[in-house]
Amino acid sequence: MTLIARKLSKILYEIRAAELHAQRKIDSVALLAVSKTKPSLDLIQAYQAGQRHFGESYLQEALLKQRELACYQITWHFIGPIQSNKTRLIAEHFSWVHSVDRLKIAQRLSEQRPAHLPPLNVCIQVNISNEATKSGFSLAELPEVIEKINCLPNIKLRGVMAIPQPETDFTLQREPYRQLYQSVKSLNRPELDTFSFGMTGDLNAAIAEGATIVRVGTALFGARG
Q1: Given its phi and psi angles, is residue 95 left (phi above 0), alpha (psi -120 to 50 degrees) or beta?
Q2: In the structure, what pLDDT confidence band is assigned to residue 132 with cuts at 50, 70 and 90?
Q3: Does 198 map to a domain?
Q4: Residue 90 CA to chain centroid, in angstroms?
Q5: CA-closest candidate to residue 97, choices 158, 165, 27
Q6: pTM score, two decimals?
Q7: Is residue 121 helix, strand or coil?
Q8: How far does CA 219 lie from the centroid of its chain?
């Protein structure tokens, strides 16, 4: 068993344990392996250990990996900032986009999604901590944005993504996730079934507050160089 396979097993065990502790249904939380900056060999090792969903932030790097790993049945997620001039390639080469932070980006992804592909799964990025250095919609903007994105063809709005201000205290970690989860649930939109939040440092807090996808890179592949 490779080191990455051992780390993957440990992370999955931690996710299952967090589900139990939060009285969540087992296997209600999926792991997205954040593989940005990591070589294709690392992804192959994780794949051979059972991982199928991988998240990338840098488009050219991701496209190279997709060519190198074309023989593997990988589901590719784009999780990084999106520039308008990159939307066509993202729409053509990914199954999921977690970082829709402007209506214009959603519109371009919809227009540029190839007709032969299924609708592109997208999550709205929410700036839950109202940080000036981060992009994303505010909680107050969500109802109007959801209505507009839901009207777009070729994309399927699945839910929300957030990266709160880092905290080390468990209670403080939970608060922004609770706020976002409850705000979305209050809208009574059953199609919004995806809550993409929680990373290596706050995985347990995110699962306690409703995460359905946790994005883990460092604990699986090691620190970025």
Answers
A1: alpha
A2: confident
A3: yes
A4: 14
A5: 158
A6: 0.97
A7: strand
A8: 16
Residue span of the structural domain in which 163 resides: 3-220
Residues 6+ apart with CB under 8 A from 139: 126, 128, 179, 180, 183
In a domain, 225, yes or no: no
Q: What is the pLDDT of residues 186-218, one digit of tens each?
A: 999 999 999 999 999 999 999 999 999 999 999
First to last CA, the chain: 24
In this structure, are residues 80 and 57 in contact, taking their beta carbons and an 8 Å threshold?
A: yes
Residue 70: both structure tokens together: 């074309």
Q: Residue 71 and residue 26: Cα distance in Å, rounded? A: 31
CB 197 within 8 A of CB 208: no
What angle (nearest 5°) sits at the alpha carbon of residue 90, between those of residues 115 and 127?
Answer: 120
Number of domains in the chain: 1
Q: How crowded is residue 183: how many other Cβ atoms within 10 Å of its Cβ?
A: 16
